[in-house]
Amino acid sequence: MSALLLYFLTIVLMLLVAPLLLSFIKGIKMWLLYKRPVSILQGYRNFAKLLRKESIVSREASAITRVAPFLVLSPLLVVLFYLPPAVKGAYYVSFVDAFTITGLLALSTFFLMLLGLDSASSFGGMGSSREAFISALVEPAMVLTIFSVSMMAGDLGVGQAGVNLAEHFPAEHMASFLFAAISFFILLIAENGRIPVDNPETHLELTMVHEAMILDITGVYLALIESAASIKFVIFASLFAGLFLPFGPELAWPLALLVFLGKLFAVALAVALIEVHTAKLRLFKVPNLLGIAIVFAFLSLITFYVLGA
Amino acid sequence: MVDFLIGVFLATLITALFTTRLYRLLFWYALNSLTLGLLALTIGTRLHDRAMLLSGALTILLKAGAIPYILKVLSRKFALVRQIPPGIKTQYAIMLVPAILVFTFYLAEPISHMVQGNANYVAVSISSLFLSLLLMIEHRNVAPKIVGFLCMENALFLLGTTATEGMPMLVELGIFFDLLMAIVVINLLLYREEAQS
């Protein structure tokens, strides 16, 4: 199969699997709590339902409310094109580094925060300020982590780093690799608003972060925002799969894609298990968790530099 | 493989530093000892050292199984405070822990030149020695101090296993018995503390 075709196939697969992963997490959680789990297809159903609904915009809202959902989604769609390849021999973008990816994610978050502020409800402002608080702490740790992995892989480009890791796994740098993986997993949880940081399922006012910003959004716009959230999860899960579980791409392409999907679902399973086992942190305790992420990212860099382990 | 285990060892110790619950702290200690035992088993199989294999198995049995369980039973018996907020604020600990690590990594540099082969492990074990010292001094309660002491013993064991390719068997067995005696002494200590209060 041609390289370009495989590239687009992977991206389409990721887009398709994105709502599936979030419903999978929800289903696992409900199953572990002895509830009747939701169908794994619930994400698609919600999307179809929201597309059919009328979209109502608040009277106070400006043009930003109409534009921002697209601008929340589009940087994430661009990031999908820069991820490490799931199949060996597929086309990939080699020159995009940690700053670009973090910057694009931050751009998406910025428009989400604007959207929250624009509806002029007090919830939106509260949610936006909390999101700004969290994402300001996430970004330095994320840059540090991806840089440290790039150092071990020997290339600053994220896609190229994934390829290098799959070809030659740095077994001698296992310790710093592990620290980077721990740090990245904490970031994955924080940036996707999963339970120790934010509860995606509640509309209880004291705990909302992401939901507070999109409380006034309806119809097609809500569908866009929801799909942006699921795509963000897929981006983080596939970055984790590509950089920290670098095995599988050398198989034949259908098998390699299957292994890739398996890794995505394994990450989702881990997130679901953590969500069941932990309580949500107080908002002012969140910096401690992200501080631990920064400690591990830094530790990964210094063990790599000083010890070479 | 050994690098991975060393990473897990250090990671569990750092996580233990930030824990605020006693049972969670005991769990991290058990995990820490488990990786230590696995490390001894791995190095033992590589060196074909029967004594080291034995001490690794004993580490897993005693330190990862028995001692955390005994401590849990003791803490239930004496109704110890299970909320153990660290005395050093997390904000400062976030800065302190990497500083300690950098300092010890550079501190261990001259020593690690003397050790052949696995020089990194000396640096990691010395830094975990300092981290468990931090674990002891950052808590006010008795129980986390005990865990810090046990972690310090783990760090010394790591140093012994990796730097010298295994201490003599007699010494290690002696250390194990000392540890069990220490647990008995801790029992008495807690008993006295309860009698006084």
Give a structural overview.
- The complex is a heterodimer of chains A (309) and B (197).
- Chain A is mainly α and 309 residues long.
- Chain A has one domain.
- Chain A has helices at residues 3-32, 42-52, 63-80, 98-118, 122-153, 158-167, 174-191, 210-213, 219-244, 253-277, 286-307.
- By secondary structure, chain B is mainly alpha-helical.
- Chain B is 83% helix and 0% strand.
- The longest helix of chain B has 28 residues, at 50-77.
- The radius of gyration of chain B is 17 Å and the shape is globular.
- The model of chain B has no long low-confidence stretch (mean pLDDT 85).
- Chains A and B meet through helix 7 and helix 11 of A and helix 1, helix 4 and helix 6 of B.
Low-confidence stretches of chain A: none
How much strand content do the residues of chain A show?
under 5%
Number of structural units classed as domains of chain A: 1
Beta-strand content bin of chain B? under 5%
Q: How many β-strands of chain A, per DSSP?
A: 0
Q: What gap, in angstroms, lies between the N and C termini of chain A?
A: 39 Å
Radius of gyration of chain A using CA atoms only: 19 Å
Integer average pLDDT of chain A: 90
Number of domains of chain B: 1
Overall morphology of chain A: globular
Number of helices of chain B: 8
- N-to-C terminal Cα separation of chain B, in Å? 49 Å
Q: What's the β-strand tally of chain B?
A: 0
Q: Poorly predicted ranges of chain B (pLDDT <50, ≥5 residues)?
A: none
Helix content of chain B: over 70%
Based on helices, strands and strand pairing, what is the structural class of chain A? mainly alpha
The overall pLDDT average of chain B reads 85
Structural class of chain B: mainly alpha
Tally of separate helices of chain A: 11
Radius of gyration of chain B: 17 Å
